[in-house]
Amino acid sequence: MNSLLQVRVTGILIEDERILLVKQSVSAERGWSLPGGRVEQGETLEEAMIREIQEETGLIIEVTKLLYLCDKPDSSQSLLHITFLLERLAGELRLPSNEYDLNPIGDVAMIPIRDLTAYGFSEKFMTIVLNGFPEAGSYQGLKSQIGL
C-alpha cells in the first residue's frame, strides 16, 4: 500500500529584493517554481530542504523560519506542502545534473520579486512575499491560500 500522504518542502531565498526560482514545468500556466521536493524516508524536513536546494541550485543554505503549512489533496497523491524561508551560506547558482529527474530543471535564477507574475506566479503570492510573509509559521489550508 502506498503512503496516503507525501510531504514536500519548498524554500524561499531572498537576496537584494530577488527571489530564487527554478525553471521546471509546474503547470500549463507556470514554468517556474520555488526550489524543493519530496522528503525522503529517514530525512528531517530541514535535511530534505538542504539537500533539495543543493541538488537543484548548487547553493548551501540554512533554514531560518517556517513560513507556511498547506494541503494539496488534489494531487495524484495528497501532499503536505511546507514552505521555509532560507538563507544562503555558500555556493554559486548552477544547473543540476537532472540525471534522476523526470521533470528536469532548465534554468536557475534570482529574479526580482516584483517580476513574479511574469514568471507565472499569482499576484497573491507576489503580494505575500512583498509584505514579508504575513501569518508566517501558520497552517494555511489549501496551497491556493498562499497563491501557489
From TrEMBL:
Residues 4-134 form the Nudix hydrolase domain. It comes from the Bacteria. Its cofactor is Mg(2+). GO terms for molecular function: hydrolase activity. Keywords: Hydrolase. PANTHER family: 8-OXO-DGTP DIPHOSPHATASE-RELATED, GDP-MANNOSE MANNOSYL HYDROLASE. Belongs to the Nudix hydrolase family. This is DNA mismatch repair protein MutT. It comes from Paenibacillus solani. The lineage of its organism: Bacteria, Bacillati, Bacillota, Bacilli, Bacillales.
